[in-house]
Every structure is written in structure tokens, then in C-alpha cells.
Amino acid sequence: MPVILSEAYMRTLLLPFAPRFILLTICTLATLVLLGAGLANGELPAALWVAVAIFAGFTCIGINDLMQRSHSVLRNYPITAHFRFLLEKIRPEMRQYFFESEKDGRPFSRDTRAIVYQRAKMALDKRPFGTQLDVYSDGFEWMHHSITPKAPAESDFRIVIGGTECAKPYSASIFNISAMSFGALSANAIRALNAGARQGGFAHDTGEGGVSPYHRENGGDIIWEIGSGYFGCRTRDGQFDPEAFARVASDDQIKMVELKISQGAKPGHGGVLPAAKVSEEISLIRGVAMGEDCISPAYHRAFSTPVGLMQFIGEMRRFSGGKPAGFKLCIGHRWEFLAICKAMLQTGIYPDFIVVDGKEGGTGAAPIEFADHIGMPMRDGVNFVHNALIGINARERIHIGASGKIATAFDMARAMALGADWCNSARGFMFALGCIQSLSCHTDRCPTGVATQDPQRSRALVVEDKRVRVANYHGAMVRALAELIAAAGLEHPSEIRPIHFSQRISGNEVVSFAQLYPQLQPGELLSGTENAWFGEAWELAQAETFAPKV
Asked: Is residue 209 within 8 Å of 225, Cβ to Cβ?
């Protein structure tokens, strides 16, 4: 027993000299030695007093590390563990600036970001020496070219959105700004986006945060998105207010009205803006009370059934004076969308457009489980909606928009091959504004002034400069798409089909998109389909409820 105590006692005595404590020991001893020397000599040179202050400061930090209870690593590695936290903090920047290859980077590769920057600045956007992609890797995709290519069209490929029930159809660009709210983005970012949209002749989706004064300043075309919070058109208790909606929607600058059912990055998840962040400005724009939490429920209160949804779309169109009305969603349960299709048939009310948001879409902040594992990816969702509408003979009267990680013309062409009529981009236009993908959107410390409400940070974004870049990026994307479809021997994006794309699924096996993605014939859902992907869900779908048939 005495031997055991002696060994334990010796270990305790030597503990300050263990590698993990040595820095604290050195700082403590240095402080004591210097103070002792000063007392012995009666004074210390100024430089040594500075050294005493430094060593004493580190000693205090080390003692605090030993006493605190929040971080185990600090208790075991006083002082030195702080370097771990420092390295962890700068890890994203170190990786992006020094270790990331041109094809690395998430969610957008360095090469993709560079293409957007170059097109926004009208700089050289070509690459030397051939592709850096592994064209024999599983998942590699390509678009087929023609032996008889066309000359690239000079047209900007506008499409007219609005069905037979629409009194004010909208001639839309095939590439527009996706939904991003004021609040998520700074006032200067909204100003630059809308001014760029006006200059380039394309549309700017407001996001669900309402139509702010910054959306209106420059007169660019607006798509007004209304979410479950009904911001800008709500009653005091958060219900939909038709009169308030009609007042806002009557503005000539608003070209279409869009109901947000779900968002790709976090479908089925609501949101709360804490009362402390509800400024007077946000209170006025959103129609919410100051001093209260601003809540976006995960569900809508204005309807609860597919039939109710179609009736609400009809009301939106009527109250807006006949402007195109539609909805945005990320596909979840397939039977729920097919229930909406059955409700269209039952009520005779059809949306003018549907925007399919993919789960790869962006957001300011989302729970990782939702961002990574909830919702259908954009390509699968677009193809599903496209074929469902074909299957009920409604595709010709409803336009489809696609959003979700679209930044290049190839991304657009691929989405259009699967059924999209036009594409929206959010993060692509953020890059055009100067976003550097610092992944700090949720911190209010955006380094470029794009995704922040800090006026000192947002002043860094110069509207007059960035609006030009927004317009440049849009124009370059449309021109690049024109070149792609011309190389395929086509004249208009509407001619792109799944047969124009292939994907490598193994080292020696290649299939076309027509084989990868299910295709229905016109009216096939009405007459009965043998396609299991659609057939099973169609049998479960009911127009009167979103619940599956049992």
C-alpha cells in the first residue's frame, strides 16, 4: 500500500511537467521568476513588465481552463487547446484558399464559382487544356451534340406564362432570380438584384419575407412569393387577408404570385424570427407586431386539402387581377402531388405554373437532418411533376420552373431535358453579387454584405456595381445555353428532351436520361398506367385529402 501511494504522489508532483500541462507550467514559472527578479532588484525594465503581463495573462487563461466545466479538452490541455479552436475556426478558409482543387468545394465547386464570377464581370470564362473531370467515373453526364449544329440563336428565349384563366399573362425569361427574402439578404443585395433584373429583363422572386421597399426601388419585375406566414397579406392573428393581398398584388411591378408550399432545403420545417430581431422595418414589411416572435408555420392555415389548395390558387389569381398564380414545392410523398392533380381535375382550377424546388437548394439556415435527408432532389422532382401533368393531360396549360443548385448553362439544359420550362437560381446570383461561399449566412457576419442585416457590413456591397454584374451573369447564362442547344442541333430550349443526355452508371455502361427517368404518355394516369412509380401513388391519391387512401 505505501508503494502505491508513493507512486500516485509522485505522479501528482510531476503532473505540471506532463506535455499537456507544460505550457501552463512555463507561463506560471516565468511569471513568478520575473516578479521575483523585480522584487529582488527593486525594479524591472519596461520590456520585462510587458513580458510579465503576457505570461501572467496566459497563466490566468490556463487556470481558468482548469476550473471551467464547459470544455473537457480545455481542462486536460489548458492554453494549448485554444489553438485547436483557432485552427477549427479558420479551417474552412484554409481549405478553400490553399487546399481545395478546382473541382472541390461544397456545395459549389471552386470552378463553378469562378465561372459565375467571370461571367458576372464579363471576364474570360474559358478553360485551357481540356476537361479536368473524370469522364469514365460513375455518374458522369454529358449532352449529345449534332453532326449538323445550328447557329446560336440571338433570342433570349422568353416564354409566356398564364393559362386560359389568366387575364394578364407574363412574358418571362427562362432564367430568373430564385426566392430570397429581405431579412435573409441585405437591403443592398435586394436593391442590386432587382436593378439587375430590370436591366437584364428577367424576374426577381421576393421570397416569403414580403415585398420590401428595396424590391420596388428599381422597378424590376417581381414574382411575389407568399409563404405560410402570409407576410404582407396577413391579419393580426396571422391568417390570410384577401384585401391586403389584393392591395399589394395590384402593383404593376408584380408580374406573378406564387404560393410557397415547401422549400427544398428544409421541406416540412417552419421558422421563427425571434422577437428581438423583429425590427420596425421588418414589422412594417411583413405585417407582424414588434415585440412578438415572427412565426412561419410548417403548414398553411388557409387550406388543408388538395381541393382547398386549388381553390386558394384560384383566389390568388382573382384577387391579383388575373395575374399568373402558381405554387412552389419540394416533392415529398408522391401521392400528395398526385392528389393535387386529382383536385385540378375535380375543380377545373389549374395553376398557371409550378416551381419545383430541389432538396439541393440553398437556405440561410436549416437543421442538418432536413438539409441532408428530407425532400426529393430537383431532377427527380421536375421529372415527376412533368410526367404527372402529362399523365392527366394538363402539361400544355401549366408551366414548370426548376430551382436547386443551378449555376451553369449545362445545369439549365439538364433541368429542361427533364421537363422544366424555365430555371431559377438563388446562390448563382449571390455569387454574381460577390458571395464567396464563406458559409456564414446564419451568423449575420457575411464578409461580402450579401446575407446580413448589419449596415456596416452591407455597405460593402455597392449597388451600382453589382447590379451590372447581376445583369451580366443572366445574359451570359442565356447566351451559353443558346450555344449548348445549337451544338445539339436545336433551336429552342423547349426542344431539349431526355434523349439528348446520357449518364455513365458504371465503368462500361451508359444510359440515356430517357432510360433513367420514367416517362408517361398523355392521359396515361387517367386511362391506367403500368408504371409502378406513378401507378401506386395514383391509387393512393385523393382530391379531398392529402392523406393516402387506406
From this structure: no
User: At 160, is the secondary structure helix, strand, or coil?
Assistant: strand
What is the SS3 assignment for 258? strand
Q: What is the CA radius of gyration of the chain?
A: 29
Backbone angles phi, psi at 316, to 5 degrees: -60, -45
d(CA 447, CA 468): 20
| Under 8 Å between Cβ of 135 and 286 | no
Q: Which residues pair with 222 in a beta bridge?
A: 204, 254
* Contact in structure between 375 and 264 (CB atoms under 8 Å): yes
C-alpha to C-alpha distance for 29 and 55, rounded to whole angstroms: 9
Helix pair angle (409-417, 463-487), 10° resolution: 50
When comparing pLDDT for 94 and 78, which is higher? 78
Quickly count: other Cβ atoms within 10 Å of residue 336's Cβ.
20
Q: Which three cell numbers mark 347?
A: 375543380
Q: How far apart are CA 422 and CA 400, in angstroms?
A: 7
- Percent pLDDT > 70 in the chain is 98
Task: Please state, in angstroms and as integers, the Cα–Cα distance from residue 245 to each residue in 320, 324, 445, following that order.
Answer: 8, 14, 33
The C-alpha cell at 485 is 442547344
Write the pLDDT tens digit of every residue in 345-382. Answer: 999 999 999 999 999 888 877 888 988 889 999 999 99
Nearest to 316 by CA among 258, 369, 359: 258
3-class DSSP state of 407: coil
- pLDDT tens digits for 301-346? 999 999 999 999 999 999 999 999 999 999 999 999 999 999 999 9
> How many C-beta atoms lie closer than 10 Å to residue 529's C-beta?
19
Residue of 383, 301, 299, 394 whose CA lies nearest to 346? 394
User: What pLDDT shows up at residue 348?
Assistant: 97
Instruction: Kindly tell me the burial class for residue 533, based on how many C-beta atoms sit within 10 Å of its own C-beta (0-12, 13-18, 19 or more).
Output: middle
Return the sign of the alpha-carbon dihedral for residues 339, 345, 346, 348: positive
Chain-centre distance of CA 328, in angstroms?
14
Contact 244, 227 (CB under 8 A): no
Rounded CA separation 79/23 (Å): 7
Distance, CA of 357 to CA of 423 (rounded, Å): 10
Handedness of CA 179, 181, 186, 191 (dihedral sign): positive
DSSP 171-211: EE-SEEEPP--BTTB-HHHHHHHHHHHHHHT-EEE--TT--
539 SS3 class = helix
Q: Which residue has the cell 398564380?
A: 325
The residue to which cell 446564419 is assigned: 442
Q: How far is residue 263's CA from residue 268's CA, in Å, rounded to a whole number?
A: 8
Of 432, 478, 404, the C-alpha closest to 113 is: 432
1 burial type by CB count under 10 A (0-12 exposed, 13-18 middle, 19+ buried)? exposed
Q: Are 145 and 487 in contact (CB under 8 A)?
A: yes
Closest CA to 284 of 234, 334, 320, 221: 234
